[in-house]
Specification:
Elements: E1 3-11, H1 15-25, E2 29-30, E3 34-36, E4 41-47, E5 52-58, H2 64-72, E6 75-83, H3 86-95, E7 106-107, E8 113-117, E9 127-131, E10 143-147, E11 150-154, E12 159-163, H4 164-168, H5 173-176, E13 187-191, E14 195-198, E15 203-206, H6 217-223, H7 231-237, E16 247-249, H8 255-258, E17 262-264, E18 270-272, E19 278-282, H9 283-289, H10 306-310, E20 314-317, E21 321-324, E22 327-331, E23 340-346, E24 349-353, H11 376-392, E25 396-398, E26 407-412, E27 418-422
Parallel strand pairs: 1-5, 6-9, 15-16, 16-19, 19-20, 24-25
Antiparallel strand pairs: 1-6, 2-4, 3-4, 4-5, 7-8, 8-9, 10-11, 11-14, 12-13, 14-15, 17-18, 21-22, 22-23, 23-24, 25-26, 26-27
Amino acid sequence: MKAVLDHVGIAVRSLDESLAFFRDALGLEVEPAQDVPAQRVRAQFISTGSASLELLESSAPGSPIGAFLEKRGPGLHHITLRVEDIRAALQQLKDRRVRLIDEAPRPGAEGALVAFIHPSSAHGVLVELKQVVSVIPPPPKPRVIQLGDIQLTLLCDGFFHLDGGAMFGVIPKPMWEKKAVPDDRNRIRMAMRPVLVDNGSRKMLIDAGCGDKMTSPKQAEIYGFERDFNLTHSLAAAGVAPESIDVVLASHLHFDHAGGFTSLDASGVARPRFPRAQYVVRRGEWDEAHLVNERTKATYFPENFQPLADSRVLQLVDEDATIMPGVRVQRTGGHTMHHQMALIESCGKTAVFAADLLPTAAHLPEVWVMGYDLFPIDTLNFKRAFLREAVEREYLILFEHDPDVAAGYIRRRADGKRYVEPVA
């Protein structure tokens, strides 16, 4: 790994006030300030030759820079080393058991990819790695599937990592690791795949990924988010503006499904992300999300859904119902008491957004049930009947979390074993 000093980061309470010294007193050349929403910071670079100074001002309450200033006051925050291949550099550090804050790169200032090394592995210094991306590749074009008269667009809010043992419950690791290879922390890579449903008159978004509010170092370390391309990019690549979405439907309210329902405004307040949309949530799930316990508090975060009620864009449904022409919901239970799937029907064809009933194509066997499920026997019972129906009626299954297979048909071999025939 070849690394050179790129810049030194300095936390300041006010960019404007700091320029009285760096620009006016020292006469240094100052670049225009820029916002970095993913880190809730305003950054301003000052050229000093081969390396730069980066002045950092908090742009929203609760930001890492704000916490640093509150605890330590203005001063040196980090040093940044520029590398040619940030992913290879991170892998090399992981192989040497260096503690990382970011196990995957994320967007930084100047359009670069960045990742932080924990100070405990760098003698008390916060070290940032940076890869300059001269030309940012366009986001992958979302796959579009025509289901009768309804158009399905398979979107993506990036990837994250969850413990493989928890994802496969009682199934021994020697069995599940053949389907999902774990990293050195026993985590497997998971996609977040919302789906856009267009019936010609209305557009519905089903789930919305984790969103951009989970930015703490602890969350980044636990989940290893990969969101270089996220739902914002995916919608743009599909030619869909947030303002054009009429309905947002929740399978349930866990953070990896409902985090993208809201976003932070300039003052750091969470507000509904899709300004014209009505958000549809099952009433039982809404109630459960407000009655968290030791088991559920790490998955339900009020900032993801409470602003919907506060802004009066929330619609609660009590039973299985048609949400818009061609789309109905059915309670599955299991994962949560009121977890639901969406059935999309047109011209005799059916697609099923199965959410966490079938999080990946590897979860086809009935007993391959997540340890995260609060009611695993309910999952098992519903899944057993649903899988028979899915094969017989040739449902197109939309896999929300599979990193490789976004959609496919469940087929049965001559020996009775099921498999997925991918279409996307």
